[in-house]
Structures are given as structure tokens and as C-alpha cells.
Amino acid sequence: MLRSTPHLFDQPRHGRSVLGGFLGVSALLALALVVASQLVFGQALVPFAAFAIAMTLAVFGLAQGYPHRVLGACNVVTLVRLAMVAFLSGALVAPDASEWVFFGVASLAFALDGLDGWLARRSGLVSDFGARLDMETDAALGAVIATWVLVSGTAGAEVLVLGFMRYAFLAAAFFVPALRAPLPQAFRRKAICVVQIAALLILVFPLTPGTLVVPVSVAAALLLTWSFLIDTVWLLRRAA
């Protein structure tokens, strides 16, 4: 019989410890986020609101099931990445946001991807919660970068595919129950996620030649669409 992941509060002692650690790290990151956003963008409302919403959803996910007694450095790294994404959201409403600052922070958030997974495996703290938090952080990073690219006029609407394909899939799953089933692990999916974010970073790099914008954005969008189509067809056939 398959065992479900234990509810965080099924064991009150370590449940409170993990939740306390999560909230403590989140509070410190929120403080750093507010200070950095105020200094760089002159306002911190949007980044703080974005981070607060993300943390609320993350706490809900954490409470649904976390099998370990400690939060671990792996999840702290992911939370740091999520705070970086929230910081980048502030650039979307800052009229004089620096392209280099945006590119630098986005690149660092991307570079840290993979470190959390490595730390989780090394410390024996692999969990569905950590994997989901990492995946949603990647999706949010892509959405924020794509929005920046579109608003700045660097690329056309095709860039929205790179930023919002996952959210379109989730919206479709709301109406098509078959799409809610879990997918098997696939290297193809992880590799294309890397290509997706890398392509977006090329588009936001201030020195990228204009002649590369359309080929990079269209090629990456087609590749991502192909990957989602594979998963969609697999799920629909499995449910048939």
C-alpha cells in the first residue's frame, strides 16, 4: 500500500519547528526584500505583496505534507530565489529600473536553480513540497522575466508563451480533470525549462543584438509548446 506524505501537523513537535523555521526565514527575507526594493526602486509595495502571496501559498503547501524534521538549507535556497523573483516584480512598476540590475538578479536566481535540489539530495531532505516550491519558483521567474521583455518592447507577444505556458496549462487543468494527474519524471521537461529561462535571459541581456531576439524567442517558445503538448497528449491518452 502506498503511504501518503504525512501532514505537517500530524507530529506537533517537529511540525511547529519546521513551520517556525519557515516563517522565520520568510520574515528575514521579507525584511531584506523591502529594504532592497526601497533602495533600488523607490518603493517596496509590489515586491512585498508578491512575496507575501507566495509565502501564504507556500505555507499552505507545507502544511499539506512535509516528511522531515528540519526545513533544511535546500528549501532556504529556494526561498531566497523566490525573494529574488519578488524583487524583480518591483522592476515592472519602476519607471527607471536598471536593465543591468534586472539581468543580474534574474541571472543569479537562475544560477541558484539546481543548488536547492543538490542540497536536498545531499542532506536527505528531498520532499514533494521542496520540488513543488522549486518548480513554482521557476515558473514565477519565467513569468516575471517574460513580462519585463514584453513591457520593454524587446520582443512581441510570443514571449508570453515562455512566461505563462505553465499557468495556461493549470487553467486548462481546471476544466479538464485528466490534466491534473501527476506526470512521470522526465529529463526532457527539466532540460527545456533550463532552455526556457536561458532564452529569456538572452532577451533581457542589455547587449543582445536585435537580430537575435525573434529567432531566440520563437525557437524557445516552439520548444516549450512541443514539450507541453507531449505531456498533454500523454495525460489525455492515459485517462482515455
From TrEMBL:
Example GO BP: phospholipid biosynthetic process
Membrane spanning residue stretches: 21-39, 45-63, 70-94, 100-119, 139-157, 163-179, 191-208, 214-236
Keyword Transmembrane tagged: yes
UniProt keyword list: Membrane, Transferase, Transmembrane, Transmembrane helix
Superkingdom: Bacteria
Statement: the UniProt record of this protein carries the keyword Membrane: yes
Family: Belongs to the CDP-alcohol phosphatidyltransferase class-I family.
GO CC terms of this entry: membrane
Organism per entry: Litoreibacter ponti
Protein name: Phosphatidylglycerophosphate synthase
Taxonomic path: Bacteria, Pseudomonadati, Pseudomonadota, Alphaproteobacteria, Rhodobacterales
